[in-house]
Amino acid sequence: MALSRLLLFVLLSSYYYIAHGGHRNGFVVVQTRSFESKSLCSASTTNLELGRASVPVVHRHGPCAPSQSSHKLSFAERLRLSRARANFIMSRASNGMVSTRDDDANVSIPTHLGGSVDSLEYVVTVGLGTPAVSQVLLMDTGSDLSWVQCAPCNSAACYPQKDPLFDPTKSSTYASIPCDTAACQNLTADRYQNGCTDGGAHCGYRVEYGDGSKTRGVYSTETLTLAPGVTVEDFRFGCGRDQRGDNDKYDGLVGLGGAPESLVVQTSPVYGRAFSYCLPALNSDAGFLALGAPRAADTSGFVFTPMSHLSDTATFYMVTLTGISVAGKQLDIPPSAFRGGMIIDSGTVITGLPQTAYNALQAAFRKAMEAYPLLPNGDLDTCYNFTGYSNVTVPKVAFTFSGGGTVDLDVHNGILLKDCLAFTESGPDVGLGIIGNVNQRTLEVLYDAGQGKVGFRAGAC
Ligand SMILES: *[C@@H]1O[C@H](CO)[C@@H](O)[C@H](O)[C@H]1NC(C)=O
Ligand SMILES: *[C@@H]1O[C@H](CO)[C@@H](O)[C@H](O)[C@H]1NC(C)=O
Ligand SMILES: *[C@@H]1O[C@H](CO)[C@@H](O)[C@H](O)[C@H]1NC(C)=O
Ligand SMILES: *[C@@H]1O[C@H](CO)[C@@H](O)[C@H](O)[C@H]1NC(C)=O
């Protein structure tokens, strides 16, 4: 009898422990060195999905970058570029109605066409031409027209890059686009400064980015090879003959936005205006970029939410947040605080939340992290001094999207950046927010414009 009572007590108390340990489940112990990127690449291609056209994605400054840049950006500089990009996107998204902040006043932009090139952090390697030569391209969901630097081009007009310049004369499939085509006429003067005015037979293009960098050249078609045997014929891109900007060795850019010039829209007859990517974790190697949506049977791991677009520009992809939780606890944020919508962008680093949501998140996160010293003058407003800690206990952060689906951010990679909460305030509640790329790490993000939805799948790379 005494024994069974003891047993009952043991059972009951372990039940109590499990049931009331619930709040602990909202936290994860993280080794602080997992916040640092490692220096050696050990990429494998196991993440590549069979049956879809996919290419590896690596961080431009990470261990698997195809070329290491000679000038490493400081954290403060990366943040400044990310802010400039976010400001650009918001100003373009709202037709110049959003004012930029003082320190970025020189990056104010309505006339430009792309975000800050230098803030783009993820690159893919593809093949261009016949025979295909490899090209390292920045991946950009916030712009549409793709381009590479083309030969001939002297050092004043093209910046140094890792690969030899793409030489159209060595490709049997290259053609310039004539002026009297719909593709060229779409590059209207206010958007890409279509250069058919030089009396030429060739269609000119020009893109200026928010950071002052630019590219100009001949709008062309070429065979694009995504993977062995997976090609896009007559892919329209800019053969760049005059570039300004940083000297960072990438060969060009691939635009994944929603307007007609983008790779995604050009390949829509085959891939249905759908693509996905997984941005790799700091400590891992390659993620992937895939065209097309997974087969319906393979979408069980995804949380979906409706996709929306801005009325004035087809480029950006939007979703609507309805809630945020920290450590498993839903924050008290009225849904109206999210009514401006969130642009989801591969190139913005830090997520910008409207004021009410940001304040609630910041307060709850700081409370959950109160064991650790806040840095008074961090690069962002919630940065910690983890000196002396080999591990820290970090609260889970989850987004709830319109439709009710909830997505947990990856605690090791998706919440903190350089020991700072990777969020900032984007402005008043009526305005837009942006979901940046730190939050997206290790998730497969599926942009399915054909089906009008965005999906998230955890632990995809
Ligand atoms: C902006 O540009 C002006 C004039 O070109 C310059 O004086 C000022 O220092 C710049 N501000 C920043 C923050 O770069
Ligand atoms: C030109 O632009 C229109 C309107 O956006 C679009 O429907 C059409 O597909 C575009 N054509 C080409 C060849 O880009
Ligand atoms: C961080 O904490 C360590 C150990 O407590 C201290 O020595 C150091 O000065 C702190 N660093 C900053 C930037 O506050
Ligand atoms: C966290 O760090 C402490 C002290 O360095 C160590 O004793 C403990 O085992 C670590 N916990 C985990 C889960 O790694």
Tags for this model:
4-stranded antiparallel sheet, Cathepsin D, subunit A, domain 1, alpha+beta, binds 2-acetamido-2-deoxy-beta-D-glucopyranose, 8 helices, single chain, disordered N terminus, 6-stranded mixed beta barrel, 461 residues, globular
Structural commentary:
The protein starts with a helix and ends with a strand. The chain is built from 8 helices and 27 strands. A hairpin with a 2-residue loop joins strand 8 (214-227) and strand 9 (230-244). It has helices spanning 2-20, 75-93, 182-185, 189-192, 263-266, 268-271, 355-368, 437-440, and strands at residues 27-31, 53-59, 122-128, 133-140, 147-149, 175-176, 204-208, 214-227, 230-244, 252-255, 274-278, 287-291, 302-306, 318-319, 321-326, 329-330, 342-344, 351-354, 391-395, 397-401, 406-408, 416-417, 420-421, 423-427, 433-435, 444-448, 453-457. The protein is 16% helix and 30% strand. The chain has a 6-stranded mixed barrel. Strands 16-15-20-21 form a 4-stranded antiparallel β-sheet, covered by helices on one side. A 3-stranded mixed β-sheet has the order 14-17-25. The protein has 2 domains: 49-291, Acid Proteases (Cathepsin D, subunit A, domain 1, Beta Barrel), CATH 2.40.70.10; 298-457, Cathepsin D, subunit A, domain 1 (Beta Barrel), CATH 2.40.70. With 461 residues, it is α+β, with helices and mostly antiparallel strands. It binds 2-acetamido-2-deoxy-beta-D-glucopyranose (NAG) (4 copies). One 2-acetamido-2-deoxy-beta-D-glucopyranose is lined by residues 375, 385, 387-388.
